[in-house]
């Protein structure tokens, strides 16, 4: 049996929705508890206000009658007094007249039991605007005289913990108005109102949950859309499609991740193309001298050409070409891996350049080329490997020798600036284009025209130079020469400055 495993979109949707539901339920219970406590407090305040008003009114009536005979077992009068509070709440100056009116109505009505029942279920209508009077009683209440004898109220024990308001006449307590404590809702109308509020609150929670679900699903999808694009792009990249790119339309972390992904894909695509070009170039470079060797040997074997010292020299020349190519490939691979041994020591670069230039003078002269030097005699010491630096200078001069027309020149200059030794190798025509300058240090790259494969180079010399210079914490770049050719500029940190370059 296969179980459903939610994806990241479903997980994010469920996480957000669950958080919304938990918050809604917590808010529901918080509002419900706040409402119930607030409603009970409201009832308490209303009852306390009514107790005070009833106490003041009964004190006035007691002062007029002199005793409690007018109220004994007269629940109807209390009911009329309470109803008059609600009906005439905007006429405070008429309050003294209400007890007389109540007593007059009480004389014409005699059913005290029915009046008491009406008082207990009394629920006054809402008052007009202005300071609202206390609403109907939500609890039982009693009126007792100074001897705690019940004058009005249900039969039974008067609660000691109930709310009391003294009835004071001439600074003497003649009785109390007592209400039972309000700890919970007891009236049916109040209970029904609370239930209605709970049902409404749960309905709001349900509707809010539905709206949260409808809003969360597209939100989760929108948030994860960049992630899905990255996942799809990664699958294509893993399958070998290095041309894959993902859309970048944000500046957040996902946007930066998408840009890094595109950079990685571009680098892999470039490396793949370089690998293909590298293999094709190696095959071509090896095929040419091998074909010449094979042709020479077959000609000798078939008797077309005699085995003479001249033919041996021709064979040796092709073998030397192959040997040089293999040596260059070996040097390049070792420098790529950092396996070249560098025996660093303080080196006077000017002295090394003079030695290398002296070795090339005869070869330059044989091709009718002029090799000149303009070197500083001070501040030319660097911390490096003299053998690798000589290999660097040999490759640069070999490059100028191979790719400069007869009758031209090469000028080597040196200067210091900002703690660096700057060397320039400028030769004469032919020159190269701006696009070709940016590719001179690529492996097996040769420009068209005179600087081409016919000159005999492997196309690896400048790539090896780049690795040697970088191993010495320096830089190398190509530019146009004032003599119409190419200027190779090398910058190396002077001795004592190399640690600052790290």
Automatic annotation (TrEMBL):
Composition bias, Pro residues: 123-134
Broad enzyme group: transferase
Pfam families noted in UniProt: HAMP (PF00672), HATPase_c (PF02518), HisKA (PF00512)
Main localisation: membrane
Transmembrane segments: 12-31, 202-227
Enzyme Commission number, as recorded: 2.7.13.3
GO CC entries: plasma membrane
Record domain Histidine kinase: where: 281-496
UniProt biased composition (Basic and acidic residues): 90-100
Residues annotated as domain HAMP: 221-273
CDD domains assigned to the protein according to its UniProt record, in alphabetical order: HAMP (cd06225), HisKA (cd00082)
Region of interest: Disordered: 90-134
Protein localization: Cell inner membrane
Membrane topology of this protein: Multi-pass membrane protein
Molecular function as annotated in GO: phosphorelay sensor kinase activity
Catalytic activity: ATP + protein L-histidine = ADP + protein N-phospho-L-histidine
Keywords per UniProt: Kinase, Membrane, Phosphoprotein, Transferase, Transmembrane, Transmembrane helix, Two-component regulatory system
PANTHER family in alphabetical order: SENSOR HISTIDINE KINASE TRCS, SENSOR HISTIDINE KINASE YKOH
Protein name per Swiss-Prot or TrEMBL: histidine kinase
Source species: Kosakonia oryziphila
